[in-house]
Amino acid sequence: MKLTGAQALIKALEMEQVETVFGLPGGCILPAYDPLLDSSIRHILVRHEQGAGHMAEGYAHVTGRPGVALVTSGPAATNMVTPLMDAYMDSIPMVCITGQVSTAAIGTDAFQECDTVGITRSATKHNELVMTAQDLPMAVRQAFHIATTGRPGPTLIDVPKDCLINTMDWYWPTDEEVADSLPGYRPTTKGHPRMIKEAARLILESERPIIYAGGGILKARAAEALRELAELCDIHVVTTLMARGAFPDDHPLCLGMPGMHGNATAITVLQKSDLLITLGARFDDRITGKVSTFAPEAKVIHVDIDPAEQGKVRRPDVPIVGDAKYVIEEIIKAIRDMKAAGTAVADTSAWKSRISGWREQFPLSYEPSQPGEALKPQYCLEQLRDSAPDGTILVSGVGQHQMWSSQFWRFNEPYTWVNSGGLGTMGFSIPAAIGAKVGRPDRTVWAVDGDGCFQMTAQELVTASVERIPVKVAILNNSYLGMVRQWQEMFYDERYSEVYLSPEVPDFVKWAEAMGCVGIRVESPEEVQPAIDKANSVDDRPVVVDFRTAASEKVFPMVPAGASNDDVILPSWQNNNREFLR
Amino acid sequence: MSDTTHHILSVLVQNRPGVLARVSSLFARRGFNIFSLAVAPAEDEGFSRITVVVDVEETPLEQITKQLFKLIEVVKISELDPRRCVERELLLATVRVTPEQRGQVVELTNIFEGKILAVGVEAITVSLDGSPDKLDDFEELLDGYGIVELQRTGRVALPKLDRQARLRAVGGNSRNNNDGKAG
Description:
The complex is a heterodimer of chains A (582) and B (183).
Chain A: E1 2-4, H1 5-15, E2 20-24, H2 30-36, E3 42-45, H3 49-63, E4 67-71, H4 75-79, H5 81-89, E5 94-100, H6 116-119, E6 126-129, H7 136-148, E7 154-160, H8 161-165, E8 167-169, H9 175-181, H10 193-205, E9 209-213, H11 216-219, H12 223-233, E10 237-239, E11 254-256, H13 264-272, E12 275-279, H14 285-288, E13 299-304, E14 318-321, H15 324-340, H16 349-361, H17 377-387, E15 393-396, H18 400-408, E16 417-418, H19 429-439, E17 445-450, H20 451-457, H21 460-466, E18 472-477, H22 482-491, H23 508-514, E19 518-522, H24 525-537, E20 543-548
Parallel strand pairs in A: 2-3, 2-4, 4-5, 5-7, 6-7, 9-10, 9-12, 10-11, 12-13, 13-14, 15-16, 15-17, 17-18, 18-20, 19-20
Antiparallel strand pairs in A: 1-8
Chain B: E1 6-14, H1 19-30, E2 33-41, E3 47-55, H2 61-70, E4 74-80, E5 85-96, H3 99-111, E6 115-119, E7 123-130, H4 132-143, E8 147-152, E9 156-159, E10 167-169
Antiparallel strand pairs in B: 1-3, 1-4, 2-3, 4-10, 5-7, 5-8, 5-9, 6-7
């Protein structure tokens, strides 16, 4: 069967069971947009290519399937760099297809030419410049295979215009042909049996064990296995920013988020533990604080599908390279066998009672606003949380609102939390929420955003309106770049440098309305609930609620950058008890 | 050069456009130091062998090999033990010499079993191949006359044939003994 490269590309996407593509056409990718008209694939026309990338990420976050972005060459490709890097840092499966100038023009500084493969090399798991139409099906197969297997990540295919126009003989590579074409790519999924037994032995011996669960649990679809392990051994679990929802917050063994803005108990259990059962987490600097003082008494079991994470930050005592779901299930089997064989189980009761003590003494809390005072952002989040329908997906941007979201929401189900963890991309939430809603139209999707973040990517709400994707946006608007303001207050003697945004401009309600959304402003506590009820009742267009919140509110607890987790800064009203954490 | 800070990696890669750029940009991005690097097609069509001498003072070798192995086109990485492999490097040098000194440089080159490539009125160009240590010695002696230009290729290496070379496959996780590779 003879097809043009463009037809082959779209057919290849269909063969990969792509249902939705986020994109924006332009000169070099133009030929691909013609067969798209005849395809079953839904195309969401974005207002900026960065939006297409984050939408693909949001879609992948909630569905587990690769998000696909389709854009043209040059500036479109460079606009895609941020979402690619974001997806790379957070191990999000994503396939990006960029147009490129014709093969004959490559290297001549042609109109809208850029070295896309060169620019995105360190922002992708793999990328490829296709040089003939005939190569397209294999390139697509490879891109999806690499993006979705092993440690997931973004891949990019750069397609010159003549490769889209020229004809080719259609073929569809088999799994075997794909594997043969990638002789250097063989992800390890099965952990080493000896190491798995060793892990089981350490778990049964440990008197102060803790499960340190990371985003790998979600990537491996291992939430059920994690729960089984935790319950079988009665071990508490901390869930990192990327793993919120991987273990239910309402579970008695869940301690929530550790790290820079984690709760005091989750931070302290890592510090005091004698065994970190690390599952799909990577000892990020936001978790460890000063590495040399992190979890000083703990042995480390490290389960990760990426061998390069083993020993990158912390030398594991038991490294296990493999898929988290497979490995956890094997560890469970090994523990059951050992118990059946009469292996003694260490007494963890003293540890448990210390944990209960910390939880009692150091709950996440904030000072409610006094009558007449500005709204507290945490209060808005609590009200949003308590009014949210079951299964609501929460998507956040980056900054204070992100940390409060992670702290004050209750994630009881996997894949209900979408955020930019590793790269910390301001402006992530609106497009990611749109992608999430496209992936899960049956769910309510709330984006919690800051006023700084919102102004970076708000134009995608036009996309949402036009494409009838009814996301809901809560802006926690304090007229500041709030997290930077917090650092300047705490570490730069309250010298506020370039963090004050205008409280008057833009008018977020008018802006929302101009973009086809419902806009609501909330300035006092009594307006909060009615606004949320109204927002939850709208289902035919996006809603933006502008919560005007207290500018001086800070996120606590806080481990200052580079400081030890032992020196966590607690809210003032908990400080008298801090000796209790020692 | 001190043996404690330099290690030789023999990296078999798919011979595809941009693969060298991937390897070198990985080193740059992760802050790994390359001491020397040589690349050429391998015995098998479709593959190239990169011999890279890395400076491991700053970064543990394990991290370098694991990150390298994550590159899709990297098929195999072997760490070559300098005691159990043959290493060769080529040196070209143009040395400023007076007519009186010319004989000395020719003699020196002959002692080292090098070659005279070109002779001019005030300069002479010589070549020498051999072990990097031998080249170091030769370069030092030439330096006494005044080196105008010098180019070395960087080393290439293969495991020794006579004994079972200790060719340690270092991809995957050494302690975990997995034969697979990075995801």
